[in-house]
Amino acid sequence: MKKPHLVIIGNGMAGIRTLEELLSAAPDYYQITVIGKEPFGSYNRIMLSPVLAGETTLDEILIHDRPWYEAQGITLLAGDEFEALHIDRSRSLIECRNGQRIAYDRLLIATGSDPVMLPLAGLETPVKGVLGFRGIRDVEQMQQVATRGGAAVVIGAGLLGLEAAHGLKKLGMDVTVIHRADRILNRQLDPEASRLLQRELESRGIRFLLGVNSQRVHSEAGRVTALELRNGSRLPAQLLIMATGITPNISLARTSGLECGRGIRVNDCLQTFDPKIYAVGECVEHRATTFGLVEPLFEQARVCANHLAAHGVASYRYLKPATRLKVSGINLYSMGDFDRQADHYTDNGHLVQLIHYRDESQGVYKKLVIAANRLIGAVLYGDTADGPWYHELMRDDIDITPYRDGLIFGRPPVAPAAGNATHAVTGNTYE
């Protein structure tokens, strides 16, 4: 009996994790074809920063090489010529750039996201050296320029921007990070943790300009030479990296008539409104939420594979994941409503209390946010060992009363405070 044909468009982490889950749940259910734009197997995209910095290689971050697909009986079509250009949903056909047409019984779209490229003056035509930071090709181009030295400017002091800055500095470039907010990683850290992180990165030679905006890209012979800010100052740049966010890659889905908002709209089964077509990862929109971190993508993969395997018992529920920074030697972890203020109230009327721990000599800072005897947020800098336990307490809505006195010191048994560390609880009960 002929197997149904499953086609996966997208060879990134979300699509391949779904494939792995499916092979585990129903290894012989489908004939499978994977279409990927990049000309090799799947790799761990969150490890691009160490590859850029020269701390590891592409081969070392491969999740599956080409022989793995062959061993699983999977057809891998990898390279620009296989890019899916259109889905003919009425005939269940995918049309590729090289003219090939591929029939499907079930289709999984995992096209990921694209970097947001600011429409600055001077970029009306392509300028070499102006890049995002999303794939191996970006890394290779950065490394090629970095071998000649010079200056790099990174726009955006979020996770990707800081990782790019660290990698380029390790390659010997003079690196400046500009950010329109008044502190780095402002969406993931509170002001104190942000200050500590900036101080550490500055000690590594990275320069920061905060509260500024870009205005124009200057170039010569089609290659970037400088970035002009709105205040008129110019920053020399042989590389200009835009790390100002991502946008779901939904062009294929939209032109094929699938329902899209900011992303491809899916239900709790990760199914689009076309019952033959599923979608996972950074390209999707689930209950008005889009995604940019790996943890929710992996949970989507588990649920989607469950339904593709015809088990049909899983349902996707989103919980905002923790944030970790992938910069060598820096331990950082944040989660939940970490930026709440003491003695304020949550939306459902619970009083907020904060527990702080500081040890300047060790470079350690911790803040826990509590409301109604529940942990609702945390920031950890320097010592993140207890981050997963705190995340478990928050995720499972656990009453922290039994741990309250020693909560800041982590999972019991409680270790005593050491050295010149300070520990304080603020709120209407403790001081």
Task: Give the beta-strand count.
Answer: 28
Radius of gyration: 24 Å
Shape summary: globular
Contiguous helical run count: 10
Describe this entry's structure for a reader.
With 431 residues, this protein is of the alpha/beta class. The chain has helices spanning 13-25, 48-52, 58-61, 66-71, 136-146, 159-170, 191-203, 251-255, 294-308, 387-395; strands at 5-9, 31-36, 42-43, 62-64, 75-78, 84-88, 93-96, 101-103, 106-109, 113-115, 130-131, 151-155, 174-179, 207-210, 214-220, 223-229, 234-236, 239-242, 246-248, 264-266, 277-279, 284-286, 323-324, 332-336, 352-359, 364-371, 374-381, 422-426. The chain contains 10 helices and 28 strands. 41% of the residues are buried.
